[in-house]
Amino acid sequence: MDSAFHISRKAEEDILGCMRYLLNKNPSLPARFLASFEETCKSLLDMPNMGKVRTFEYTALLNIREVPMREFKKYLIFYRENHGDIEVVRVIHGARDLPAIFAENPIS
User: Fold this and answer.
1) How many structural domains compose the chain?
2) What percent of the chain has pLDDT over 70?
3) pLDDT tens readout for residues 9-30
4) Residue whose C-alpha is closest to residue 33's, from 101, 81, 91
5) Predicted local confidence at residue 50, as pLDDT
6) CATH code at 38?
7) φ, ψ at 85 (rounded to 5°)
8) Can you say whether the dihedral through the CA atoms of 61, 85, 6, 28 is positive or negative?
9) Rounded Cα gap, residues 61 and 41, in angstroms
10) What are the residues facing 67 on neighbouring strands?
11) pTM higher than 0.90, yes or no?
């Protein structure tokens, strides 16, 4: 069976928010952002441990890793590996207050 990546509802909301923001900067950025996201996720399927392990104080966030997106290095993909599949739980700009964001609504 082939590995796949799954995107949480919250990560989908994050991606749409990032794309809306980037659209205001340059109309070509959202498509490039999405392509970069997909390329990074495909790389994670080949090397699921390439991301840095993150430690948060919430048990729902155990085994979470982060990796910067290929072309958009300031945007971080937070994910976990699950039996060969990649579960993307959040996609957040690294300059944001990550502990506060994850405390609010970690991964639902």
Assistant:
1) 1
2) 89
3) 999 999 999 999 999 999 999 9
4) 91
5) 87
6) 3.30.2310.20
7) -90, 160
8) positive
9) 19
10) 77
11) no
